[in-house]
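Subject: sequence -> structure tokens, single chain

Hey, anyone have a minute? Need the predicted structure for the following. Not urgent.
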Amino acid sequence: MSIKNELQRCVHGILKRNQDGAFETQHARRKVLFKAVADLCANGYKLRHIQGLKQKHVRFLNELWQSRGLAVATIKNRNAHLRWLCEKTGKNNLMPSNEELGTGKRQYSNNQPSGVDLKDVALEKISNKHIYVQIHLQQYLGLRREECIKIRPHLADQGDHLVLQPSWCKGGRGRVIPIVTPEARRWLNEAKSLAASPDKSLIPEKRSYIQHRQLYDKQLQRAGVKHPHGLRHTYAQERYLRLTGWECPKRGGFTSRQLTTIQKEKDRHARLLISQELGHAREQITVVYLGR
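Reply:
Had a minute. Here:
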């Protein structure tokens, strides 16, 4: 067995024993860690067990990624997976901070438009009824792709708000989303009509999650949607307008420098709420969706 295969086998065992987070998080973690192992082996490092991982290996990987011109956000995400691996192997103090590794600050966004509105999408090319409903849940309730597939709408619907269970959400972070528009209520009811009972998700019968996700990707590409995440941007931007009374910077509204003191407080409150409703822990991430 080659050194690379031995190392990947070690990593596979750790991943199998520690299935933390949502399915997509686990999938991304596996992909990053296997690629990191391959990069180490391809550059002459002869590790035969992941327990032999040292700080010099981590530093090399970061230098390699930076030399390839990877975005700061991408490198930080990869380091998060390496940090997880170190924790699972009892090497909690092995990983230097991102600053020590020379990883710069994330560049979040500018004020250019970013939303995807279903009014501009070739909806007639979405032939699968589950996917048709799911993309509307994304726009009107701000759900991620995984969430709009895994959601059990009967269970989630609590009248004036939606309760997302941790197992449906990225990072295992469940959350509450208010139902404040007729469109949100309409499409949630449509979702409930597709799921026959409270224990049913929006994954069609005789299909696995992965099979349905692949069909989702194909149908949205056919409809001309290159970045479905933009549907969540539209949710955030509409929500901001409802909460503040004015458009966000990405829709040509006031920038932070143009706001009065009172408006700034209202802006901050709206951003905190929107961040929570989207499943994020920091107000800063709303710059991606709303601009600044």
